[in-house]
Automatic annotation (TrEMBL):
<dbReference type="InterPro" id="IPR010364">
    <property type="entry name" value="Uncharacterised_IM_CreD"/>
</dbReference>
<feature type="transmembrane region" description="Helical">
    <location>
        <begin position="316"/>
        <end position="335"/>
    </location>
</feature>
<feature type="transmembrane region" description="Helical">
    <location>
        <begin position="342"/>
        <end position="363"/>
    </location>
</feature>
<feature type="region of interest" description="Disordered">
    <location>
        <begin position="401"/>
        <end position="425"/>
    </location>
</feature>
<feature type="transmembrane region" description="Helical">
    <location>
        <begin position="290"/>
        <end position="310"/>
    </location>
</feature>
<dbReference type="Pfam" id="PF06123">
    <property type="entry name" value="CreD"/>
</dbReference>
<feature type="compositionally biased region" description="Polar residues">
    <location>
        <begin position="403"/>
        <end position="425"/>
    </location>
</feature>
<protein>
    <submittedName>
        <fullName>Inner membrane CreD family protein</fullName>
    </submittedName>
</protein>
<keyword id="KW-1133">Transmembrane helix</keyword>
<feature type="transmembrane region" description="Helical">
    <location>
        <begin position="264"/>
        <end position="283"/>
    </location>
</feature>
<keyword id="KW-0472">Membrane</keyword>
<feature type="transmembrane region" description="Helical">
    <location>
        <begin position="369"/>
        <end position="392"/>
    </location>
</feature>
<feature type="transmembrane region" description="Helical">
    <location>
        <begin position="12"/>
        <end position="30"/>
    </location>
</feature>
<keyword id="KW-0812">Transmembrane</keyword>
Length: 425
């Protein structure tokens, strides 16, 4: 065996700390390189994806004006008497290069009811703003009751039309289209002070819904567990100063960003791993040499390096499993050769906990902070329980004496040795 089973000195601890610091610097460099590479790839892919899928879709509310026969040149702003809108959002994330993009398809249908409550004939003009000039629209339809005006060409970013309503007459403007977008979808109430009988129903094909900070929450919602879909409803019978309605697409985990974040937090994993090995080495009288810790650090680093580049080729979870298995094999095999089974079992358990499980939490939204907290508390509890009966004065006394540095036998085991010596043979 290559270990020194007796000596653990202050100099050794300093060397181990220097090794941990050097490897931490390597992780920071790796994380920075991955972040830079990922950001560059994101900018490139974002441009090309937006050209194909279009930007975020922001649909504005129908704009309506009317004029009377007495003053045809004076337009008065108005609002539909009722609005019934159906939106279907189909989330279809696409990978471009190294990045996943939050792309989606939207099917939009709206019925706007206009009622002339006056005693005179009125001429109504409306504009239906299209969400974006950079998007393509499919299956576009425009109807006034049963009259089809789907051939109306857009002008200045919107569909413009006019109609005459007699006193007491009502008409329904029906508009539908399908298009694609990225990141988010919104329904905007620009310059709308008050709305009546407004209802928007939204169906999503994803379960992870997220409403934008500046948008309102639905008045009713229902989750279909069988289909993993949400039915959301915004029902506004009469609302002054209505807030926009918006939906963010689910966050897409980009492997490059995940690998970079795991690399930045890797020194914390290594610190806990080293702490467990050092203290269990003291307890069992098998203290590893600093060179052993150097190779163990390399085994840790191999996981992050392999995971970072495998994610370019295969699915992120499969890349994680392969990198984790390789690292566990490297460290387990090395410790078996260096110290036998004395520390191998403890090391593999610690590595699985601090490297595999801790790093795996980064693959899920919101799991990192909790995993760090629970891991730190569990480590503290383990070390407190394992070292509670160690005579630390004796430990440091031996560590500071030249040529000694022996690992003390824990008091919990010393009385068993004395009983064995005093018992009759």
């Amino acid at each position: 065996m290559t270990t020194n089973s007796k000596r653990l000195s202050i100099a050794n601890l300093v060397c181990i700390g220097a090794i941990a610091a050097a490897v931490s610097l390597a992780w920071i460099i790796l994380g920075g390189t991955l972040s830079k590479r990922n950001n560059s790839a994101n900018r490139h892919s974002r441009t090309s994806v937006n050209q194909v899928w279009g930007p975020a879709q922001n649909q504005e509310h129908l704009k309506l004006w009317y004029s009377t026969e007495d003053n045809v040149h004076h337009r008065i702003a108005s609002q539909p008497d009722a609005s019934e809108i159906d939106v279907q959002l189909n989330y279809e994330p696409k990978k471009k290069g190294l990045s996943w993009n939050r792309t989606y398809r939207v099917h939009f249908r709206a019925n706007y009811t206009i009622h002339n409550a006056s005693n005179t004939k009125r001429r109504y003009e409306f504009t239906f703003p299209l969400p974006s000039l950079d998007s393509s629209y499919h299956d576009f339809t425009l109807k006034l009751d049963d009259q089809d005006f789907s051939d109306t060409a857009p002008q200045n970013g919107g569909i413009h039309h006019s109609l005459n309503l007699l006193a007491g007459e009502s008409r329904v403007i029906s508009i539908a289209y399908a298009c694609r977008g990225t990141d988010q979808w919104k329904y905007l109430f620009h310059d709308v002070e008050r709305i009546h009988q407004f209802k928007l129903a939204m169906l999503t094909n994803f379960a992870d819904i997220d409403f934008q900070d500046d948008a309102s929450s639905p008045t009713d919602r229902h989750y279909d567990h069988d289909k993993s879909t949400w039915n959301l409803v915004w029902d506004y019978p009469d609302v002054i100063n209505p807030k926009d309605i918006g939906m963010d697409m689910p966050a897409a985990k980009n492997p490059g960003a995940v690998a970079a974040k795991i690399s930045f937090y890797a020194p914390l994993s290594l610190l806990c791993f080293f702490a467990v090995l050092i203290l269990f080495g003291l307890l069992r009288g098998h203290n590893l040499h600093p060179v052993n810790y150097l190779f163990l650090s390399a085994g840790f680093f191999a996981f992050h390096l392999l995971f970072a580049y495998l994610t370019d080729l295969i699915h992120m979870h499969l890349a994680f499993a392969i990198a984790s298995a390789v690292s566990l094999t490297l460290i387990g095999g090395y410790l078996r050769a260096a110290s036998g089974k004395t520390l191998m079992g403890v090391a593999l358990i610690a590595q699985f906990f601090y490297l595999t499980l801790f790093s795996y939490s980064f693959l899920f939204k919101g799991g990192t902070g909790l995993s760090i907290t629970l891991g730190s508390i569990a480590t503290l509890a383990l070390l407190m329980a394992a070292t509670a009966k160690i005579n630390w004065s004796e430990v440091f006394e031996h560590m500071t004496k030249p040529g000694q540095g022996t690992s003390p036998t824990p008091p919990s085991n010393s009385h068993l040795t004395q009983q064995a010596e005093s018992s009759p043979t």
